[in-house]
Amino acid sequence: MATTPTRPTDPAALNAARATVASLMAGHHVPGLSVAVTDADRLLFAEGFGAADLATARPATPDTRYLWFSMSKIATATVAVRLADEGRLDLDAPVRDLVPGYAARSGEQPRVRQLLDHTAGAANPLPVRWVLPAAAGDADVSAATRRVLDRHGHPKRSAGGPARYSNLGYLVLAEVVSHAAGEPFEQHVERSLLQPAGMTATGYRHRDGADHATGYVRLPRPATPLLRAALPAGTVGDRHGAQVALRPFRVAGAGYGGLIGPVPDAARLLRLHLADGVVDGRRLLAPETARAMRTIATPGRPFDLGLGWFRRPADRSARPEFVEHWGTGGGFWNAMRLYPGLGLGVVVMANTTRAYDHSALMSALLPAFT
Prior knowledge:
The protein is α+β, with helices and mostly antiparallel strands. The chain has a single domain (11-368), classed as DD-peptidase/beta-lactamase superfamily (Beta-lactamase), CATH 3.40.710. 31% of the residues lie in helices and 21% in strands. The chain contains eleven helices and 19 strands. A six-stranded antiparallel beta sheet has the order 3-2-1-19-18-17, sandwiched between helices. Strand 12 and strand 13 form a beta hairpin. Helix 2 packs parallel to helix 5 (167-181) and helix 2 packs across helix 6 (185-194). It starts with 10 loop residues before the first helix and ends in a 5-residue tail after the last helix. The mean pLDDT is 93. It comes from Geodermatophilus telluris. This is CubicO group peptidase, beta-lactamase class C family. InterPro entries: Beta-lactam-related, Beta-lactam/transpept-like, Diverse_Enzym_Activities.
């Protein structure tokens, strides 16, 4: 299934891009994948490849919903800076003023802005078990998130140093957003971003009857018991050849990785940032705020950071220039990228745990739209 491009494209380049996608999927054993391309005004292209579910041979389409994992951080960062635009959140305030339990034992106290650009000194524990069954209620998810925060309740390093990517930092940022907004974090994201941006197929819960992708882990049969031991009970499903299915689950930590949705909605988020804070004629961010988010000002490891968006140090000299964010975890590997100079954004979501060459895929798509 594909959308009809809404501006002239090079058919030969588009077919070449499709061939690149097929080759990458075969080479990296990717079951299914969906991709979308947008400019600042409209969705240009969306298409699904392969299978959303191997057991039923259900195809991946543009409307297939994938677990975003850390691509969710761009939504979290967007609502945080929008609160700052509205005068409801001071990005330079100490985090402990808003989340009293999160404070440095010594040295500089982390500030809200430093959570955004990963310089707050937060630890980054492996989040393998930060998941619950899809049917888990909001109270269960909140309790699980609270246990994570209680266990890692202090920065690991002094704030203000080089950027060190941290899932935990965005869990704390979600607490900051909730405090500033005066409502639960998930509710605030839905009200202040997803609804006004028209991202109606995206949220923090699985939806009955929706076209959800099944996540897969490719591994040898003897390793299956190890996977079952590593993940919470009931998460690991049936094997399909070399691929092991993961049953639907929710992430305990909406702020760092909990969104579930299709590529056209992710393209809407890209469109908001390409248009300096406007989507469908509605301004959600000040222009200077949107530009600040994608300005890579903080060197770090493994990424150089803006206020949410990042870029690998190896890509500092890449042309055309871009910023991006990945979303990776059990069963899914996703990435979305802004090319501000081209006025284009690309998002790819796949139901595979192993990395594939998303950069080659995105680069192959560009000639069809430039």
